[in-house]
Each structure stands twice: as C-alpha cells, then as structure tokens.
Amino acid sequence: MASPVGGWICIRCGFHGQPMKVTKGSFGVELLLWLFFCLPGLIYSIWRLTSRYDACPSCLAPSSMIPANSPEGQRLLAMHQASTPSPPTPDMPK
Ligand SMILES: [Zn+2]
Fold it and tell me: What is the pLDDT of residue 83?
C-alpha cells in the first residue's frame, strides 16, 4: 500500500513507523508440499500469498496500523507523545 505522509501509527501500542508484511505459514512447509505433492503445494502457496497482511512491527497486531495523518492517527500520536517520558529538566537540583 502507498505510504501516507507522516507514516503509520499502531492503534494498539502507538508504534510510529512503517507496517511490516507478514506472511502466514512457513517456506519450509511450502517447499515440502511442492516437492512431494504438486497440487497441495500450489494451494498452500496461494493461501500464503492471499493471507499476507500488514502488521505492527512492534506488537505484531494485524491490521492495527493506521495513517498517522488521519484524525485518529493525530490523536494517537499526541497521546503517545504526551505519555513518553520527557528528558529530566534540571530545574530541581538536589
Ligand atoms: Zn503495535
């Protein structure tokens, strides 16, 4: 998918960045199926390709990334920026 200006933000954990493509199943199983039975291998390959989804690289939640420049994305961004600890201010010496 096209990347929006400002990237993506995760609605689950607030991760700000690019979503990650996740492919279900394993390449090993796919190879094994192809080697021994042609048709199940084909079905397995199609299933893997069609079930690919975008997930958050931080919490791995599927379809949890929304454009950061959307109203909801802006709200999440502000919320997570407020909750992240700011560097200590040297106004209270001990
Ligand atoms: Zn996340």
Answer: 67
